[in-house]
């Protein structure tokens, strides 16, 4: 069975790594790795392939950045030729980025089975590009793999037949558990002179936060206070950096001595930073899950989460972007103890193996 596996953007890399590794012990599957090229910077891209031991992509579509319509359309055009050339038994897509829906749509239009890993997550906020990508990809997929019970419930509510849906756990957590010991050796804390000190970690890249100067400004108001209490380490996504320094916000950020801006950093350094942080502030989806396993408090700077299990368990607080709410949540988070929190079911490091077992079972010709 030939399976084309698609990655495009940074959060896809941690998800595909354990799946590619699980194929190694499955001679029935011939995997082909396709990189759409949505993310292309060394620091957003090669660094992760290298650190996570992902094989070199067999094919790179080199699509790059553009408007959503152009990026999606260019990916579809380029991926169609690949599918026609390879005639795979299935196309496997992960997550919720533009590459996910673009390649998914190409597959089903050519009559190729579509597999979606991380299916069913819903923020119920249709203004998020990722929510549109999730809903559309799930509606056309043949096999849907969920990380948490809410995903399964959402899919059933949307009318997806039960026999297509599998609750298998979380491939991103497979990667975290596999690399946790290796990340211990990272010297990022020394490098940043943070040994022994309390510090916070911040990431921001959602268009709703960083493309809107008013919202971004409200978040900076909170950071102005927090960075006086402890250093805030802020690896800056390219979109965020561009927006900061094309407005007066750049000057505000530069004036905050405790807010320490870095270029995007690699997986192992970031894992080490998160695991030693007193608190993490973020608008990322994956980081809400990673902090749950690390039992580090996470303040999600959004109005909703598509990963409700992280909030139910308690390490994640969805606090929005109101300055006062962020500061109050920060004050509570640094006082609470999260070390005894439980772990979501099946987030045990074996999700990718479960996925590959189902693929072998369900994709074999009848
Ligand atoms: C994409 C995903 C988002 C994911 C995020 C992780 C979509 C709709 N969004 O958002 O779900 O959480 O990746 O990072 O697919 N850029 C670079 N170098 C790169 C890549 C991007 O400089 O290697 C800059 C470009 O200016 C580009 C901008 O970042 O225009 C946005 O990139 P894009 O891939 O469109 O979306 P992200 O914001 O990264």
Task: Break the fold down into its secondary structure elements and pairings.
Blueprint: E1 2-7, H1 10-23, E2 30-35, H2 46-52, E3 59-60, H3 68-86, E4 90-94, H4 98-109, E5 113-117, H5 129-140, E6 143-146, H6 149-157, E7 165-167, H7 171-184, H8 188-191, E8 200-203, H9 207-210, H10 213-229, E9 232-235, H11 238-245, H12 249-254, E10 259-262, H13 267-276, E11 279-282, H14 286-294, E12 298-300, H15 308-313, E13 316-318, H16 323-335, H17 351-363
Helix pairs in contact: 1-7, 1-17, 3-4, 4-5, 7-13, 10-16
Bound molecules: uridine-diphosphate-N-acetylglucosamine.
What is the overall number of helices? 17
Biggest β-sheet, characterized? 7 strands, parallel
Kindly estimate the percentage of residues that lie in beta strands according to DSSP.
5-15%
Helix/strand-derived class?
alpha/beta
Describe this structure in words.
Helix 1 (10-23) crosses helix 7 (171-184). This protein has helices spanning 10-23, 46-52, 68-86, 98-109, 129-140, 149-157, 171-184, 188-191, 207-210, 213-229, 238-245, 249-254, 267-276, 286-294, 308-313, 323-335, 351-363, and strands at 2-7, 30-35, 59-60, 90-94, 113-117, 143-146, 165-167, 200-203, 232-235, 259-262, 279-282, 298-300, 316-318. It is an alpha/beta fold. 48% of the residues lie in helices and 14% in strands. The chain is built from 17 helices and 13 strands. Strand 11, helix 14 and strand 12 (298-300) form a beta-alpha-beta unit. The longest helix has 19 residues, at 68-86. The strands form two sheets. A seven-stranded parallel β-sheet has the order 3-2-1-4-5-6-7, sandwiched between helices. A six-stranded parallel β-sheet has the order 10-9-8-11-12-13, sandwiched between helices. The chain is globular, with a radius of gyration of 20 Å. The two termini are 13 Å apart. Uridine-diphosphate-N-acetylglucosamine (UD1) binds at residues 9-11, 38-41, 44-45, 65, 96-98, 129-130, 205, 237-239, 242.
